């Protein structure tokens, strides 16, 4: 579904991503992991058209993402950013409605179909009760769910999540990722998400991609990528692996010396 | 949604009251009844009643054009102020930020010290020079702030502040050098409507109408902008072209307002804040309400400027700053518990 080939992204002279290639099949979750500065956010920004790659290609169902207008791209790729600095004065409903932007005219007039899609997106992200609340009065978890609803309102087959759980407590982390996981199963959405928490990612992702200094250091199933020796080298801390996670997924812990 | 029309009604009523006050009040008071009769006579093409002929001259060749010019300027300044604030997501943004106002000031002073106002043709050239100064400054700021093909907002603000300061310093220097034209220049700079008659109204009308009309269509785009440029792009908005359109339209509006009515501070900063505080953050509402409110506030300030020290007129810029700054601080204190920005 998503096919990235030999991607090169530069900040000025410095290459932030080099020779990055991977594929994500429809209806699956790719988890992107790696230490700070490895290029995880750069990858999200390139896929969503904020950064222009210097070389390589990114294709959704065979269509080249970099050749598209913002509007065309936003109909294929939706981003769930971190809930930070959201404009406080909008209501939940107004914010989710802006997710329809790629389908709206210059004046932003909503058709009955748009309102229906917004309603459905809010149902799926379990945010209906937030419709009339002021965004500034909501908790971080509620804001994050609204951002998910806004992305769903874009009706895009590919969903990118950039560290969606960073500011959330454990309960909200699980509930957000459960919601994403359900969407993938029910609607066949394809998801690329970056996460710091190796154990969360191991629980939800079908495949993992480990980025180190802008290059793919390992790719495969969580079982293959979450190798304690490899990760210890990458993160510069001794790590050990337990096989006790949900559904037999591996759990990575710092070694107690 | 229930009361969507209410803020518009309220603002239009206030505007109507301010318009009436502005044509009625001055060195000679014209009673509203006489104003109505004069308008009725004009519309039906009849000659005005003999008793009202003095009023007729004052009303149609002095008060009405001035009132319309002030209303246009107020609407333009507040409307473009709202657009700048939305575009830069910065509560400090106003027509001064990108250097438009100070550029216009420099242009005007250059024309005045160049002796332009000694001839009739030169007199008409002063606002034109201001207009040119404004546009050159915006272009300069834009070029300085540019990085490759994009213009980061912080760069734009920093370049705007620097270029503004430079233009203001040049203006002050030129004013020190000049002698005879000094007073006239100062009055103009402080926002005295030193131009009178229908000429400036007709000259500024197309620019301000065009600029404001373009700005009024950008409400939805500015709403998307409130999430930052990165998210705006991810939501499918052509960020670069939107920014260019808003800057161009807002600068055109401001330059026209400043060129024909002088430099008038605080309207572009305060009116959008009040509107946002009272009626929320939706730019499809903020833009039109700011334009209407800006016209009202500037009209009231102009009436005060005419009556406070009558028969002498104060520059309206003094009134807007003297009244605007304390009001703004009061608003800031009131809003502290609940961040409305």
Feature tags:
heterodimer, A: about 260 residues, alpha/beta, Rossmann fold, six-stranded mixed beta sheet, about 35% helix, B: about 350 residues, mainly alpha, ABC transporter involved in vitamin B12 uptake, BtuC, about 75% helix, globular
Characterization of the model:
- The complex is a heterodimer of chains A (257) and B (341).
- Chain A has helices spanning 40-47, 70-76, 92-97, 112-124, 140-153, 170-187, 198-204, 222-225, 228-235, and strands at residues 2-11, 14-24, 29-33, 55-60, 63-64, 77-80, 158-162, 190-194, 207-212, 215-220, 239-242, 251-254.
- With 257 residues, chain A is an alpha/beta fold.
- Chain A has a single domain, classed as 3-Layer(aba) Sandwich (Rossmann fold).
- Chain A has a six-stranded mixed beta sheet with strand order 6-7-8-3-9-10, sandwiched between helices. In chain A, strands 2-1-4-5 form a four-stranded antiparallel beta sheet, with helices on one face.
- In chain A, strand 11 and strand 12 form a beta hairpin.
- Chain A is globular.
- Chain B has 341 residues and is mainly alpha-helical.
- Chain B has one domain (6-334): ABC transporter involved in vitamin B12 uptake, BtuC (Orthogonal Bundle), CATH 1.10.3470.
- Chain B contains 14 helices and no strands.
- The chains are: A alpha/beta (257), B mainly alpha (341).
- Chain A binds chain B through residues 45, 48-50, 69-71, 73-75, 77-79, 81, 85-90, 94, 98-99, 101-102, 104, 106-108, 136, 150, 154, and chain B through 217, 219-221, 223-224, 226-228, 230-231, 233-239, 276, 280-282, 284, 339-341.
């Amino acid at each position: 579904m998503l096919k990235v080939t030999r991607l090169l992204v530069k900040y000025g002279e410095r290459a932030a991503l080099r020779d990055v290639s991977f594929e994500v099949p429809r209806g699956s979750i790719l988890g992107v992991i790696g230490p700070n500065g490895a290029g995880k956010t750069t990858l999200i920004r390139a896929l969503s058209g904020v950064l222009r790659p210097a070389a390589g290609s990114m294709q959704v169902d065979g269509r080249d993402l970099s050749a598209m207008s913002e509007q065309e791209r936003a109909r294929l790729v939706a981003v769930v950013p971190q809930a930070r600095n959201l404009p406080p004065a909008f209501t939940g409903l107004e914010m989710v409605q802006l997710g329809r932007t790629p389908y709206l005219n210059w004046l932003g007039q909503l058709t009955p179909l748009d309102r229906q899609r917004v309603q459905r997106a809010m149902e799926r992200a379990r945010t209906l009760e937030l419709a009339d609340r002021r965004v500034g009065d909501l908790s971080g978890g509620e804001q994050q769910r609204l951002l998910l609803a806004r992305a769903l309102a874009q009706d895009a087959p590919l969903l990118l999540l950039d560290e969606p759980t960073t500011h959330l407590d454990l309960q909200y982390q699980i509930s957000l990722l459960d919601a994403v996981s359900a969407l993938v199963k029910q609607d066949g959405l394809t998801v690329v998400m970056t996460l710091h928490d190796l154990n969360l990612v191991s629980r939800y992702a079908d495949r993992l991609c480990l980025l180190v200094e802008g290059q793919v250091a390992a790719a495969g199933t969580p079982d293959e990528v979450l190798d304690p020796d490899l990760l210890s080298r990458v993160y510069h801390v001794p790590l050990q692996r337990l096989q006790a996670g949900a559904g037999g997924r591996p759990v990575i812990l710092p070694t107690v010396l | 949604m229930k009361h969507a029309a209410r803020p518009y009604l309220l603002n239009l009523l206030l505007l109507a009251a301010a318009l009436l006050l502005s044509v009625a009040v001055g060195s000679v008071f014209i009673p509203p009844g006489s104003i109505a009769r004069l308008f009725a006579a004009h519309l039906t093409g009849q000659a005005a009643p003999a008793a009202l002929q003095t009023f007729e001259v004052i009303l149609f060749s002095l008060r009405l054009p001035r009132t319309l010019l002030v209303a246009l300027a107020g609407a333009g300044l507040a409307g473009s102020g709202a657009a700048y604030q939305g575009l830069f997501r910065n509560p400090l943004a106003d027509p001064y930020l990108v250097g438009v106002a100070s550029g216009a000031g420099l242009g005007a002073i250059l024309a005045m010290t160049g002796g332009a106002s000694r001839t009739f043709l030169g007199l008409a050239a002063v606002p034109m020079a201001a207009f040119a100064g404004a546009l050159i400054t915006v272009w300069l700021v834009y070029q300085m702030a540019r990085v490759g093909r994009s213009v980061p907002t912080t760069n734009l603000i920093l370049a705007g502040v620097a270029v503004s300061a430079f233009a203001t310093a040049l203006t002050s220097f030129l004013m020190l050098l000049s002698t005879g034209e000094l007073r006239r220049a100062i009055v103009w700079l402080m926002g005295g409507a030193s131009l009178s008659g229908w000429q400036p109204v007709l000259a500024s009308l197309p620019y301000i109408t065009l600029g404001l009309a373009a700005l009024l269509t950008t409400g939805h785009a500015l709403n998307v902008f409130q999430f930052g440029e990165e998210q705006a792009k991810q939501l499918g908005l052509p960020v670069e072209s939107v920014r260019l359109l808003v800057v161009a339209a807002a600068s055109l509006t401001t330059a026209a307002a400043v060129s024909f009515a002088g430099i008038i501070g605080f309207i572009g900063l305060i009116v959008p804040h009040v509107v946002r505080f009272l009626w929320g953050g939706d730019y499809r509402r903020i833009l039109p309400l700011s334009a209407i409110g800006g016209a009202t506030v500037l009209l009231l300030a102009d009436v005060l400027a005419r009556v406070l020290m009558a028969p002498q007129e104060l520059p309206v810029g003094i009134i807007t700053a003297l009244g605007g700054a304390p009001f703004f601080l009061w608003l800031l204190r009131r809003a502290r518990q609940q961040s409305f920005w």
